[in-house]
From TrEMBL, chain A:
The keyword Transmembrane helix applies. The keyword Transmembrane helix applies. This is Uncharacterized protein. It comes from the Bacteria.
UniProtKB/TrEMBL annotation, chain B:
This is DnaJ domain-containing protein. CDD domains: DnaJ. Residues 281-342 form the J domain. Residues 164-282 are annotated as: Disordered.
Length: 143, 342
């Protein structure tokens, strides 16, 4: 499996015309024949594109997991689909970070909830008492 | 600290009773998604069968939908979890499950070839171990994946490859024939035009000759008239004699001058040396000056061919090889030409 797009120096999303131009202007006769066989028929190109997507996904995963030099990753595939390691942070570490952040937020909320609840209850009681007193004063309530 | 929300797979992983099982489930679902000719229901049933002893404790539906969306980050997270948590025993069993899921009907899809090998690298399973495991499970050795970026793959896998090729060839031939017919017609038209032009030229030449003839006649008449006049004058005035002699002199001079010019002209026509252009060019391609001997040409050709042979650039890029073969071809053509002419 070779990356024909890379070898013809065109982006994978290139349209028919650009591909046709690149194929006809290719100097390497064997590569030109293979590229013609793949790109001249729509179904073949579709099949090739699906596999191309999967293999480039695997190349990306291998680069992030540090597996670009594995025993099972050799030959044309390794040549064409290996990417430089992009130093992305490990997803698992990121998940652990986020969980610990969420836990600390939750704990803070639990800790602050007790005093705030007392204050709220006290304020509500005081409000109700003041309202009742005013009503009594103005003689609105039958005694 | 990132403010992004938890992704569906992260939530699933956090809720799961066993993180390794959830992660393995996603990886197996990824393999299943890349199996061809299988319906969605069959995929789910197969996944449920294989993972009957897993202790994840959640539905399989969300895992399948994540696998279908090809979420690379989720798969990376699953791979990290599996790598972190799996010992030797467990990793072999994961590979075992992956092979089972990938080859129920004995046929491994191309994508799964690469995915299985990725798992083997991830869980540090050696190629020999993977091969024996695969052979035990399916009865056939693990072949290297076929290459759809080559013409030969489509020759065997495309049922109407030859029909298509024949059709293309027929279309190309038809085009060629049309082009030939057009070229022939153009050639014919050109010949006709050439013929007409020649006719026109002939007419023009005849016209010119006629005009020249007329002019000569006119000149002769004029001369005769002049001579008569001169004779009259001779008869009348003797002192004009000198003048007439001077005129004759000048006429003689003119005629001699004309003769000289005619001679010059014919010499110019004769002196047209053959163009030695191509030979000098061929020599300069081989890096020689004009006048080099046959032996020098041969030595220069050997040297240049060794320098520019495309096999020397085998280890470099295809572009380099193509350039070198173009150079080599030019050198060879020059040498062949020189060998013919020398």
């Amino acid at each position: 499996m070779r990356d024909l797009y890379q070898r013809l120096a065109i982006p994978p999303e290139a349209n028919e015309q650009a591909i046709q131009h690149a194929v006809t202007s290719c100097q390497h006769s064997a590569l030109r024949q293979d590229a013609e066989a793949v790109f001249s028929v729509a179904e073949r190109r579709e099949a090739y594109d699906t596999l191309h997507d999967t293999v480039s996904d695997i190349g990306k995963l291998r680069a992030r997991l540090g597996l670009s030099h594995g025993a099972h990753w050799q030959g044309d595939v390794a040549n064409d689909f290996s990417l430089p390691p992009d130093h992305a942070i490990s997803r698992h570490d990121e998940l652990v970070d986020r969980v610990s952040h969420a836990v600390s937020l939750y704990n803070r909320w639990r800790r602050l909830r007790g005093p705030w609840l007392l204050i709220a209850v006290f304020a509500a009681g005081a409000g109700i008492g003041a309202g009742l007193g005013l009503a009594l004063c103005w003689g609105l309530l039958p005694v | 600290m990132s403010i992004a929300r938890f992704s569906p797979f992260e939530l699933l992983l956090l809720k799961s009773r066993s993180q390794v099982d959830t992660a393995t489930l996603l990886l197996l679902a990824w393999v299943l998604v890349h199996r061809q000719h299988v319906s969605e229901g069959q995929r789910r049933r197969r996944l449920a069968q294989v993972t009957a002893q897993f202790r994840h404790g959640h539905e399989l539906g969300p895992v399948m939908s994540i696998a279908h969306s090809q979420d690379l980050q989720a798969i990376q997270l699953a791979a990290e979890v599996v790598r972190k948590e799996c010992g030797k025993e467990r990793s072999l069993s994961v590979i075992h499950q992956a092979i089972t899921v990938a080859t129920d009907d004995g046929e491994l899809s191309l994508a799964n070839h690469y995915i299985l090998r990725f798992f083997a690298d991830l869980l540090s399973v050696a190629p020999t171990t993977l091969n024996t495991l695969f052979k035990e499970l399916t009865g056939t050795p693990l072949a290297s994946p076929e290459d759809p970026s080559r013409d030969t793959y489509w020759q065997t896998h495309d049922p109407d490859y030859h029909a298509r090729k024949a059709r293309d060839a027929a279309a190309a031939e038809q085009q060629q024939q049309q082009a030939n017919a057009r070229a022939e017609q153009q050639q014919r038209e050109k010949e006709q035009r050439h013929h007409q032009k020649q006719q026109k030229q002939q007419e023009k030449q005849q016209e010119k000759q006629r005009r020249q003839e007329e002019a000569r006649q006119a000149r002769e008449q004029a001369q005769q008239r002049q001579q008569e006049q001169e004779r009259q004058r001779q008869r009348e005035q003797a002192e004009r004699e000198q003048q007439r002699s001077r005129q004759q002199d000048s006429q003689q001079q003119r005629s001699s001058y004309q003769e000289e010019r005619r001679n010059n002209h014919s010499r110019q026509q004769r002196a047209s040396p053959p163009p030695p252009d191509r030979t000098t060019r061929a020599l300069s391609i081989l890096g020689l000056n004009p006048g080099a001997t046959r032996i020098e040409v041969r030595h220069a050709y050997r040297r240049m061919a060794q320098l520019h042979h495309p096999d020397r650039y085998y280890s470099e890029s295809e572009q380099q090889v193509a350039l070198a073969s173009a150079r080599f071809q030019r050198i060879k053509n020059a040498y062949d030409y020189l060998m013919q002419t020398y």
